[in-house]
Amino acid sequence: MGCTVSAEERAAIARTKQIDQTLKEEGQRAKRDVKLLLLGRMSEKS
Predict the structure, then answer these.
(1) Rounded CA gap, 43 and 37, in Å?
(2) Max Cα separation, the chain?
(3) pTM score above 0.70
(4) Is 1 helix (H, G, I), strand (E, B) or coil?
(5) CA-closest candidate to residue 25, choices 33, 14, 37
(6) At the top level of its lineage, which domain of life is listed (predicted)?
(7) 7 is in which domain, residue-wise?
């Protein structure tokens, strides 16, 4: 066993990072959507 990483492991790490980034972006987008929905509902009550 050495400290080298196989091509499969590198691909898996890259895919994991890509998924993490996508989830982070979607979470930020969802927060904005919720804020817009809350503002929209409050303006209907006025």
Answers:
(1) 10
(2) 68
(3) no
(4) coil
(5) 33
(6) Eukaryota
(7) 1-46
Residue written as token pair 């987008």: 29
Look-up of token digits 């196989």: 6
pLDDT, tens only, 1-46: 568 889 999 999 999 999 999 999 999 888 877 666 566 555 555 5
Give dist(CA 46, CA 22) in Å, integer.
37
> What's the alpha-carbon Rg for the chain, to the nearest Å?
20
Domain count, the chain: 1
Instruction: Say how far apart CA 3 and CA 25 lie, in whole Å.
Output: 32
Query: Which structure tokens are listed for 35?
Result: 């804020």
